[in-house]
Amino acid sequence: MKAFYFLSLAATCLLSGVSAFPALKDPSSPQYAEFLKRAAEIKAGKYAFGDILKRAENASSSLETPGGGFGHRRLTALLNPDNFKYNAKEQYVDLTSDEHKYIPPGPDDLRGPCPGLNILANHGYFNRNGVTNLFQGIDGINKVFGVEYDLALALNAYAVVFNGNILDLSWSIGGPFKSKDLGALEDVLVGEPAGINAHNIYEGDASIVRQDYYAPGSGYDNVELYMPYFKDLLALGNNDATDGKDVYNAELMLQHKANRWHQSVATNPYFFQSAFGGLVVTTAAERFVAEFAANNTVDENGYNRIYLDEKNLLAFFGVEKGASGNLTYTPGTERLLPSWTRRPLAATFGLDDIVLNLLHAVSIDQSLLSLGGNTGKVNSFAGVDAADITGGAVHTADLLSDPQALSCFLFQTTTEEVVPTLLSSIYKDTGKALDFLGKNFNVPFKKLATAGNNPCTRYNTNATGHYSEFPGSKIPRKQDQGVVGTILGGGSD
Ligand code: HEM
């Protein structure tokens, strides 16, 4: 194992000739402008990656903004919601009827670490008890937040198989749960389904405002909001409480993610960043705040204006501000304000955007795309050696000079290696689960990885072989989290 940030080298390719990353923190710098241009080209289809844009009919016009570039939010990776006409009817979400008004969870209702999912349950778009299923899950995140179907399917399918009940397709947005065919599951599962709280399966380290599961002093609490981190986020936004101001945009959120990453490395001896939970889920979640918690309104020209101000941010995270400015968090009380409106239907966020978001993240801090962890002491971060990951077959610089290569790498690492290894520790018989994932998780992912007739067979990854080198990669065995056994060379706590 060598201390090696496997993707950092590659970032310089994306930025052609730019080696000083700090310059990218300044949105007015030429380097940043170059990054934006490159991202726009990717989205416009100049590269093979663009071929998979499902929103092609909107893509060309959506890249035009009055001021050039990507408009005031500088969305480097996505179709800018502000390039579409505001459509009050289409963007309306019912948040006040008896069926969908905010109701906090009762004592038996499950809630977990994902504010987006807690909100859907609190507003009745998911079952209010916190146990949802594949179909409701896809429909809910698409209808309310505008998550594209390919991504919605992949996120839900993963939750069913790893955190839910593969027999009736239910899964929990919190901890262990009871469902219809649970009894029969005993035949296929090693233990009961743990829900998405389970650490190192979906949930990972350096989250936005949750503590790391193994961090000293956390009491294994990776679920509840941790106020000091939330205050750090507000401070990054200069505690600006101006109504309607777009304070918590993509750049700010990714900067917060970078800060959290270094904070975890410096305080958690067992910090671990895996390929799926780390690279994909926690980095994407940070972007989800800027994209999905944001409110939308109409500007003076009839176009959409997306913004995330403090008021909407507090509600999204279940935090209330008192008259004296004191903040109070009540677990499970995440909500959308009655005035909240979703992004334009055409500006959905899909799997391709997850990959482009990673490219954006590396422009802010290259560490975000490293794979590995601390080795039992704080500040001992060691990355998995890139040559091992790619089997030496491909120069890792490809990964960031070419989003297609990055998609392929993530696909192969996740589906061909990490997923089967995880499955074998959770299922007595992996056949049914593999079959289900093959159809519902691998298919959309593969479509992305092989867009433009790219065969995507080149990485002979060995990431999981390295996971055991990091003590924080263990999946905990705790009574209140369900039992999923130990994995990847680790023991149980
Ligand atoms: C089926 C869909 C989804 C699943 C299975 C899911 C699952 C998760 C999980 C397991 C985490 C914990 C990750 C971590 O350790 O940081 C998480 C965090 C998060 N999710 Fe989701 N999520 C889904 C959809 C969404 C949507 C639609 C949104 C936005 C509206 C969202 C926003 C977030 C945010 C902001 C966090 C970070 C919370 C924090 O660290 O404080 N998620 N999600």
Automatic annotation (TrEMBL):
It holds the Pfam family Peroxidase_2. Residues 1-20 form the signal peptide. Residues 98-356 form the Heme haloperoxidase family profile domain. Keywords: Heme, Iron, Metal-binding, Oxidoreductase, Peroxidase, Signal. Gene3D superfamilies: Chloroperoxidase-like. GO terms for molecular function: metal ion binding; peroxidase activity. Its cofactor is heme b. Belongs to the chloroperoxidase family. This is Heme haloperoxidase family profile domain-containing protein.
